[in-house]
Amino acid sequence: MEPAADQGATVVITHRVRADKHAEYEAWLQEIAPLCKAAPGHLDWHIVRPIAGLTETYTVIIRFDTAANLRQWMESPARAQLINKVLPLFVKGDDFFVSSGLDFWFTPAGAQAKVPVRWKQYLVTWSAIYPLVMGVPLLIAPLMQALGLPEQRWLSTLAVTATVVFLMVYVVMPRYTKLIKRWLFS
């Protein structure tokens, strides 16, 4: 599924490089990085290098201001030429995943699956947020009273929304999507 054009977009690229080819790959990165960074809409470029003796995988994370600009870079002749040049260094091909918005909630760690259809994202998000929105205020209000904080709507709303988002991102969605992944990705 393609991100909306105005949301911005991120691509996560993984390259599993042959053990004896890391120096050549690093030289190749020096060649492709300036071209990517000069592409229209480029925002950010990060490289997560492998840990010696543990992994051979490089992860390159690139952010663009729009999905269209990201697509333009990913499909550019310059990138295609450089990917063809580096392919012999790889154990496996040029793997990448494009995401934006809340799509990260719907991709379990290590999943090869792409983002599920939007209506399933809607149902899953709604079914996770509803009980939190109903229950968290019942916990936050007494806690704020016990702490002697003033009863102000903006302050309680701030505390409730911060708690709901924290729970969604770190507790609920990683477990929930793992639990229902068969249905979610079917």
Key descriptive features of the protein:
single chain; about 190 residues; alpha+beta; Alpha-Beta Plaits; 2 domains; four-stranded antiparallel sheet; 4 strands; about 15% strand; disordered N terminus
Give a topology summary.
Elements: E1 9-16, H1 22-38, E2 42-48, E3 57-64, H2 67-74, H3 77-86, E4 95-99, H4 118-146, H5 153-179, H6 181-184
Antiparallel strand pairs: 1-3, 1-4, 2-3
Helix pairs in contact: 1-3, 4-5
Describe what this molecule looks like in 3D.
The chain folds into two domains: 9-101, Alpha-Beta Plaits (2-Layer Sandwich); 118-184, no CATH class. It is α+β, with helices and mostly antiparallel strands and 186 residues long. A hairpin with an 8-residue loop joins strand 2 and strand 3. Helix 1 (22-38) runs antiparallel to helix 3 (77-86). It has a four-stranded antiparallel β-sheet. The protein has helices at residues 22-38, 67-74, 77-86, 118-146, 153-179, 181-184; strands at residues 9-16, 42-48, 57-64, 95-99. Mean pLDDT is 82; it is low at 1-6. The radius of gyration is 21 Å and the shape is elongated. Helices cover 51% and strands 15% of the residues.
